[in-house]
Amino acid sequence: MTTTTIRSMTGYGRGEVTQQGVRIVVEIKTGNHRFQELVLRMPPGWLSLEDAVKKVVQPVVRRGRGDIFVHVEGMEQLPRTFSIDWGLVDSIVQSTTELNQRYGIATTLSATELLQLPEVLKVEEARFEVQSLQAPLLEAVQSACEQLSMMRRREGEALYHDLLERSKLLQQYCEAIQEHVPKVVLAYQNRLEKRMSEWLDHEGWMDRIRGEAVLFADKVDIEEELTRLHSHLDQVYRALIDSKEPVGRRLDFLLQEMNREVNTIGSKANDAQIGAFVVECKSEMEKMREQVQNIE
Question: What pLDDT score does 4 carry?
Answer without folding.
Answer: 63
